[in-house]
Amino acid sequence: MATVVGARPEFVKAAAFSRALADGSITGITETIVHTGQHYDHNMSQAFFDDLELPRPDHNLEVGSGSHARQTGEIMTRLEPALVETSPDVVAVYGDTNSTLAGALVAAKLHIPVAHIEAGLRSFNRAMPEEINRIIADRLADILLCPSATSAANLEAEGITEGVNVVGDINHDAMLWALPSEEAAGDVLERFDVAPRAYAMATVHRAENTDDPVRLADIVDGLNRIAQRLPVLLPLHPRTASRLGETSLPDNLRMLPPLGHSDTLALLANATIGLTDSGGLQKELYWLGTPCVTLRNETEWVETVATGWNRVVGTSPDRLVEAVSAMTTVDLPDRPPIYGDGNAAARIAEVLKDWRATRGRVMIGATT
Ligand code: UD1
C-alpha cells in the first residue's frame, strides 16, 4: 500500500494510520510513504515527521509551491513514476489538499484502487479549492472512509454508496496520541507566557481569508478588539504571514511561527476560546472542551455547531467579538462523542484487510 501526503494536516492523520499498521495485531499491510513536498518549510513538514514519529518518506517529490494547476500537475508528473516503481495494491489519500487530488487522479489512471480517508466532507462551497479536491477524490475512490454519518449521507446524496465505511475521525486518534500530559502542557503554557483559561488561540490560513484583503483586515480588526481584554496567540501559516507583511499589531495579539502538534494541542486545551478557519482545529477544540468560533461562512464539521460548541460567524469584527463574549459567559452543554472513539485508524486498517481478502476471492473466482 502507498500513502500519499504533502501538507500539514495529512502528516497528522498519516501518523495515526502508520502507527495502527505498525501495531502487530494488524498484519499483512506494508506501507510506502510518498511525500509530495507541497509543504516544505521545516516547521510545516519535517517538524511534524519528528514530533509524530512518522516514518521517513520512501519518496519525496519536492514539488513546493505554485498555482493550483502547476502544483497539482507537478505532483502528478512526479508521482506517476514513483507509483509505477512501487506498484502498490492500493493508494491511500487524506482529506482535501492538492496532494489528495493529484494522488487520487494518478492512482486511478494507473488502475490502482484508491482509499480516501476523511471521505464525504462537504462545505457546499465550490469557491474553496478543498471542496473541488474532495469531490474528485470521492468520485475516484474505491474505498471511502467517512468520519461521521453526515459524511456518508453526503456521499449517498451524490449517488456514492459502494465502498463507503463510517470509521470515525482519524484526527481524534492522532490527538489522543500527541496530547501532552497536564504537567507537560503546563510547561508549554509557561514557555508561551500564558495562564490556563486566560488567553485565546487563533489561526487563519484558508485562501478565502488570506487572499481577500477585506476579510483579512476584518479578522485582524476583530482579533485586535478581543486582544484588548484577553491575550491572543496567533501562530501563522507562511502564506498568512506573507499577506500580513508589516501590519503592526498590538502587543496582546502575538504573532508566532507555525507550532508543533503537541504545543498546539496543549495551547488549545487550556485556551479560553479558539478562533479558526481550520477544520482540524474545530474538532480538536471540541474534543478538548474549548469553545470555538469559526472564521468562515460555513463548516464541514456541522456536528460541532449542533452541539453548541462551535459558532460559524464569518469575518465581521462585530460578530466575532459578540461570539467570543457569548461563548465565554454561558455554560456549554455536555459533549457527546460525535466522531467516533479515537480508534478510526485500526478500523481503517481492518476495512482495508477485509477489502483485500474479498478482492482476492473475486480474482480467484474470475480465473476459474
Ligand atoms: C493546504 C491545503 C489545505 C490544508 C492546509 C494546511 C490545498 C488546496 N490546501 O493549504 O486543505 O488545510 O494545507 O496547512 O492543498 N508555504 C510556505 N511554506 C510551506 C508551505 C506553504 O511558505 O511549507 C506557502 C507558499 O507560499 C504557498 C502557500 O503557503 O504558496 C500556500 O501553500 P499551499 O501548499 O498552496 O497550501 P495551503 O494553503 O497550505
Can you give a write-up of this model?
By secondary structure, the protein is an alpha/beta fold. The chain has helices at 8-22, 46-51, 68-86, 98-109, 129-140, 149-157, 170-178, 182-191, 207-210, 213-227, 238-244, 261-270, 279-288, 302-306, 317-329, 344-367, and strands at 2-5, 32-35, 59-60, 91-94, 114-117, 143-146, 164-166, 200-203, 232-235, 253-256, 273-276, 292-294, 310-312. The protein has a seven-stranded parallel β-sheet with strand order 3-2-1-4-5-6-7, sandwiched between helices. Helix 3 crosses helix 4 (98-109), helix 4 (98-109) runs parallel beside helix 5 and helix 12 (261-270) packs across helix 13 (279-288). The chain is globular. It starts with a strand and ends with a helix. Bound molecules: uridine-diphosphate-N-acetylglucosamine. Uridine-diphosphate-N-acetylglucosamine binds next to helix 1, helix 5 and helix 11. Uridine-diphosphate-N-acetylglucosamine binds at residues 7-9, 38-41, 44, 65, 96-98, 129-130, 205, 237-239.
Which key phrases capture this entry?
alpha/beta, seven-stranded parallel β-sheet, binds uridine-diphosphate-N-acetylglucosamine, six-stranded parallel β-sheet, disordered C terminus, single chain, globular
